[in-house]
Design brief:
The complex is a heterodimer of chains A (614) and B (494).
Chain A: H1 2-23, H2 25-45, E1 51-54, E2 65-68, H3 70-93, H4 100-119, H5 123-141, H6 147-177, H7 182-187, H8 194-212, H9 220-227, H10 230-255, H11 258-261, E3 265-266, E4 269-270, H12 271-292, H13 296-316, H14 320-351, H15 367-381, H16 387-401, H17 405-430, H18 446-464, H19 467-479, E5 486-488, E6 491-493, H20 501-522, H21 553-559, H22 566-585, H23 593-613
Antiparallel strand pairs in A: 1-2, 3-4, 5-6
Chain B: H1 11-29, H2 37-58, E1 61-64, E2 75-78, H3 80-103, H4 109-128, H5 132-150, H6 156-187, H7 192-198, H8 205-222, H9 230-237, H10 240-266, H11 270-291, H12 296-316, H13 320-351, H14 362-365, H15 367-381, H16 388-401, H17 405-434, H18 447-465, H19 468-482, H20 484-492
Antiparallel strand pairs in B: 1-2
Helix pairs in contact in B: 1-2, 1-4, 2-3, 3-4, 3-10, 3-13, 3-18, 4-5, 4-10, 5-6, 5-10, 6-8, 6-9, 7-10, 7-20, 8-10, 9-10, 9-12, 10-12, 10-13, 11-12, 11-17, 12-13, 13-15, 13-16, 13-18, 13-19, 15-17, 15-18
Classes of the chains: A mainly alpha (614), B mainly alpha (494).
């Protein structure tokens, strides 16, 4: 009953929240936060109580089963806690905006439908919740109007195409196995031929891939993530795109099983190779495109495409280490990307802009946001003592062990790009010159501080004690038949190189101590006004110079012309064609009654000719 | 078989017909009373149909008129399909009549209500009768009243659309009559069961020509491509209550007629493949034509056309699953499309324009109507948790179950059409909610307008969440609809 209860509370809570807002705005906010926290509580409570519930009601002739296993618990806890934090964040962010009842309702709706996806024990439910998630996401993406409307339409178009492919796959599975229950299908997977499974994978790749934003299905993401309301962008980038990954893991490891998966493919082209390479392409090109962006959220959006690439590379290795790294990166990316989106949101909230050319120097005005941004970027780049380091280390390691040197090389180049754009966002927003207009800016409100602090602490703590989550993932890997690794609180012990955060931790501690001792004992710094030594003594008005404009200018010039989103252009071209075609088809109906009568006679003649022909 | 007079299925036809004739007389006495007559009639029909439903699920009822046994007299075949349709007709009729209380104010009000009742009588007659000529008569009642109702607004568009509809419709009727003539010439009987019993004894090209004539003739009303050119004009120029009835009921009746004739009389198999292809073509053309429309009622009209294609496809799959899916889709489309037309009726009434751009930001100005409109749209696209999802799912399931490559291709095309449908409908949702309104002030919706729409919305959500409600009825209906032998057996009391 628990799982159904969780979903029931989520969906009903969403609707109650809406009507509560009609009575009293405060009531709505209390409800939204209470329900999202309640969901977190119930999922924490469900830890370890892995079970399967068969629902009392069916859907047509299909059975409805809810399951909770380690994998779905991991996803559920990430979903519910990040949603709760985003909703708390929204309390300040959404203040004064219109249609808040709708906003909170949809936030709860999206997160509950994602919970529904991970609790699904049959593919039918998976599809149903998937669709509910798709349309509620669409409504939230379009929320900001203006450019968001176009972004929303782009998202939903790709999303429908994906779900249609998925629907065909799901029904075909039903016809093949006579059931849609995931556990039953995985037991009987042997009766399906490899060719059949390859077809199913192709279809599901479309379905899951659109959500996961794997290149070449990523084109909706930069628009949607940058135009959505910022707290929701955190959910979008943090977890919604991971639902696609959840689908991949489900199919690869749970349903088909990794042994069979490694043999799937069309001819010599094995899926896991294709997957790994698509992952690497997703790392490489979008990471460089991210450097070019001047809209902070767009930059983060492109970065999300890149980070999804790491996860895909990790899980497509098919080894315990790769799975560990990929799945850990799901967690770390959710945390640090959620954190980064929230910091940008709080900057946007105070400055009303997210244009990287206009911001700067906010470190003094918003210290907590700065710390959040710093830690987020550190996680993104993968600096030791953050969770991003753990996942990237594991992924690189697994590439190294599987002897995939090209993949490793390209991933490393991608990380280099990540350092560049990570530093860009940090510098252009928080460092450098504070523009005159922000002199009297207030600090970030407390409801923004809480989620930022919690997420920052999570990045650091899970970077220092990765074992807590690694152990869980290791158990998941073991249940999928992968080799079990020796995981302890501080990392992973292995023969080819042990990850031990304890040593790193103390090493870094020592280094920091050393640097501070030198720094403070020297004590030779003095403070000057910013305007003092600039422009060689000539007076330059303060607002005239700005470090942040055209950051990395030489690099831009070098790479800009190679980095068009060709795929997006191609899709838009196809959309244009379809549009023109539809406009042409419309002209069949000329409005002339003579033609119409002609059509009728023609149709009759057509039927008779068919008969005469055979 | 029929225990009391009040349970006689004939009343489903007689009561509204009688009321329709009394309407002008009552109008002479008191004009305000007229608008309550259709409500009364439909309420009666709905109650009786719901009452009959559990009975006919086990055994269809045969009612012989004028005391003679079939095949010598006109008989009614009251099976689950007929009652299912009758429920839909009376439900939508009732809700539309309630909607009409405040909506239809100017013009010839008595005539409107009389024609409205006649239209519904015709529709009920078609689905219940067991006699092909009788079917034709009811069909004409349906068509003629809809021609007149399309022109009800008495503006240029309405009259032009009605004339075009009339010309194409009469051509169709002429074909049907011709087809009946062929059959009568061959078999000397008009009773469908009787013809069905003897059809294997005759092998003549005339038989096929008769079938082609029926498909073409009924096809005009059923909006098969390319016979559907009247539809966008007629559905968009009629008053919205009539659009709701036309899109929600009339065209489904056309489809019912085609498939009743095909399943029961001919039972040919090769024609179904052709019809399946034609269905998908109709679907694609309808959705693609809707894609670039800027007039909201035309968008809905073209979408109806597309949905007809989908239903024809489902019914032509030629398995019980397919028919069950097709019937399910008919329910979906009836509920969703009448909901949409009724919502749009109020939007158009308030903004005085049918342009999509005039809907900008209506979500704020009439929140409830917009919400219900959204529900209808989501249901038509086939999104869970609305009724359109299980119906579309069962059609795809039935199609793929055949395992034929042709059906696989057709289903892929159908899914492509769904994508197109989704895009233009989602665009309208964005217009409703995510564009700036030109004015801020809210509209107040009268309760009589709101009530029918809310009921439809609730039904859509309720069946969408728990489609098991309909499962048994649909499967049983599909079996009986499809099975020619049992039809003959039931009529002649085998």
């Amino acid at each position: 009953m628990t799982l159904q209860l969780i979903l029931l509370i989520g969906f009903c809570g969403a609707i109650i929240t809406y009507f509560a807002g009609k009575i009293l705005p405060v009531l709505r906010e209390i409800f939204a936060v209470a329900i999202s926290l309640l969901l977190v509580g119930m999922i924490v409570y469900a830890y370890g109580r892995y079970s399967q519930e068969i629902a009392q009601f069916g859907f047509l002739n299909f059975k409805i089963v809810f399951t909770l296993n380690r994998l779905s618990w991991l996803f559920a806890i990430i979903i519910s806690s990040l949603s709760a934090l985003s909703i708390i964040f929204s309390l300040s962010y959404m203040k004064g905006k219109e249609r808040q009842d709708f906003f909170y309702m949809m936030m709860l709706f999206v997160s509950t439908s994602m919970l529904g996806i991970v609790f699904s024990g049959t593919f039918l439910q998976l599809f149903i919740f998937w669709e509910i998630m798709s349309w509620s996401t669409f409504l939230l993406i379009s929320y900001s109007k203006g450019k968001a409307v176009k972004a929303g339409l782009k998202y939903i178009t790709m999303s429908i195409i994906g779900s249609m492919a998925m629907l065909v796959a799901v029904i075909s599975l039903y016809l093949k196995f006579g059931t849609l229950e995931i556990s039953v299908i995985s037991q009987n997977i042997d009766i399906a031929s490899l060719r059949y499974l390859s077809c199913i994978f192709g279809l599901l790749f479309l379905g899951f891939g659109v959500k996961a934003a794997v290149v070449p299905l990523h084109t909706w993401l930069p628009d949607a993530h940058s135009e959505a309301p910022s707290p929701f962008s955190a959910i979008l980038s943090g977890i919604l795109i991971k639902m696609g990954i959840y689908g991949f893991i489900l199919m690869m490891y749970m349903v088909v099983g990794i042994k069979i998966f490694m043999t799937l493919g069309v001819g010599w082209m094995k899926f896991h190779y294709v997957f790994a390479w698509l992952g690497v392409i997703s790392i490489l090109i979008p990471s460089f495109i991210a450097i070019l962006q001047n809209d902070a959220k767009r930059l983060l959006a492109w970065s999300s495409v890149g980070q999804i690439g790491y996860i895909i590379v990790g899980i497509s290795m098919g080894t315990g280490l790769g799975f560990l790294g990929g799945t850990f990166h799901i967690f770390s990316h959710a945390v640090f990307k959620g954190l980064l989106f929230l910091t940008i949101a709080s900057v946007e909230y105070r400055t009303r802009t997210r244009d990287l050319d206009q911001l700067g120097g906010l470190i003094k005005k918003m210290p907590i946001t700065f710390l959040g941004g710093l830690i987020g970027v550190m996680g993104l780049i993968g600096i030791p003592l953050t969770n991003g380091f753990i996942s990237k280390w594991l992924i690189y390691k697994s590439l190294f062990e599987s002897n995939r040197m090209f993949l490793l090389l390209f991933s490393l180049i991608g990380t280099w790009a990540a350092i560049l754009y990570g530093y860009k966002i940090l510098h252009n927003v928080f460092l450098g010159q504070l523009p005159e207009k922000y002199r009297n800016m207030k600090r970030e409100p407390v409801f923004m501080q809480i989620p930022i602090i919690i997420l920052s602490l999570t990045v650091i703590l899970s970077g220092i004690f990765p074992g807590i989550i690694l152990k869980l993932i290791n158990n998941i890997a073991f249940s999928f038949g992968l080799e079990s690794l020796n995981v302890n609180m501080w990392g992973v012990v292995s023969e080819t190189g042990t990850l031990n955060i304890r040593n790193i931790f103390f090493g870094i501690l020592a280094a920091i101590a050393l640097v501070s001792i030198i720094f403070y004992s020297a004590k030779r710094s003095w403070k000057v006004s910013q305007d003092d030594n600039y422009a060689a003594g000539a007076f330059v008005p303060v607002e005239k110079y700005n470090y942040t404009v055209e950051f990395y200018a030489p690099l831009y010039k070098m790479i800009r012309k190679y980095l068009k989103d060709v795929i997006d252009i191609f899709y838009c071209w196809i959309a244009g064609l379809v549009d023109a075609l539809c406009n042409g088809i419309r002209k069949i109906y000329t409005g002339d009654i003579g033609t119409y009568v002609g059509y009728i006679l023609f149709f009759l003649a057509f039927l008779i000719i068919i008969y005469l022909r055979g | 078989m029929v225990s009391t007079v009040w349970q006689n299925p004939v009343l489903l036809i007689v009561v509204p017909l009688g009321l329709a004739f009394f309407t002008p007389i009552i109008g002479l006495i008191r004009k305000e009373l007229v608008k309550y007559i259709p409500i009364l009639g439909m309420l009666f029909n709905l109650t009786l149909s719901l009452f009959l439903l559990p009975k006919v699920l086990d055994n269809p009822i045969i009612v012989s008129l004028s005391g003679w046994k079939p095949p010598f007299a006109i008989n009614l075949f009251v099976g689950p399909v007929g009652i299912l349709f009758s429920i839909l007709i009376s439900l939508v009729g009732l809700l539309t009549a309630i909607y009409g209380i405040n909506y239809i104010k100017k013009g010839a009000v008595e005539k409107y209500h009389m024609l409205f009742l006649l239209l519904l009588t015709g529709a009920t007659g078609i689905v219940l009768t067991g006699d092909i000529f009788n079917l034709f008569v009811f069909f004409e009642i349906l068509c003629i009243s809809s021609y007149a109702l399309v022109a009800y607004n008495q503006d240029k568009n309405g009259i032009e659309a009605a004339t075009k509809y009339l010309i194409q419709g009469s051509l169709g009727s002429a074909f049907i009559l011709l087809g009946i003539g062929f059959l009568y010439g061959l078999f000397g009987t008009l009773n469908m069961a009787d013809i069905a019993r003897n059809i294997t004894t005759v092998d003549s090209p005339a038989l096929f020509i008769a079938m082609a004539l029926f498909i073409t003739g009924f096809g005009v009303e059923a909006a098969i491509f390319p016979l559907n050119a009247w539809l966008p004009d007629a559905h968009s120029s009629a008053p919205s209550t009539i659009s709701a009835i036309l899109s929600g009921i009339a065209i489904h009746i056309g489809i019912y007629a085609i498939f009743r004739v095909l399943y029961t009389l001919f039972g040919f198999n090769s024609i179904f493949t052709v019809l399946a292809v034609i269905g998908i073509v109709t679907l694609l053309i309808g959705e693609m034509s809707a894609f670039r429309q800027e007039n909201i009622k035309r968008v809905l009209a073209y979408s109806s056309m597309g949905q007809m294609g989908l239903i024809i496809f489902a019914l032509s799959i030629g398995t019980v699953d397919g028919i069950s899916g097709g019937l399910f889709q008919i329910i979906t489309h009836t509920l969703s499309k009448s909901l949409l037309f009724l919502c749009v009726g109020y939007m158009v009434y308030s903004t005085n324009s049918m342009e999509l751009s005039s809907l900008n930001g209506l979500g704020k100005r009439m929140p409830l109507i917009s919400l219900l409109f959204t529900i209808g749209v989501f249901s038509l696209i086939g999104l869970p948790p609305f009724i359109g999802f299980p119906s579309k799912l069962s059609i795809i399931l039935a199609g793929l179950k055949t395992g034929e490559t042709l059906f696989l291709i057709l289903i892929v095309l159908m899914l492509l059409a769904t994508v197109i449908e989704g895009v233009y409908f989602f665009r309208i949702i964005q217009i409703l909610y995510f564009k700036e309104p030109d004015k801020e002030e809210r509209f107040k919706t009268p309760f009589t307008l709101l009530f029918p729409v809310i009921i439809l919305g609730l039904l859509i959500v309720a069946i969408g969440i728990y489609p098991g409600l309909l499962q048994e009825i649909l499967d049983r209906s599909a079996e009986i609809f499809w099975d020619k032998l049992s039809y003959i057996k039931i009529v002649f009391g085998g």
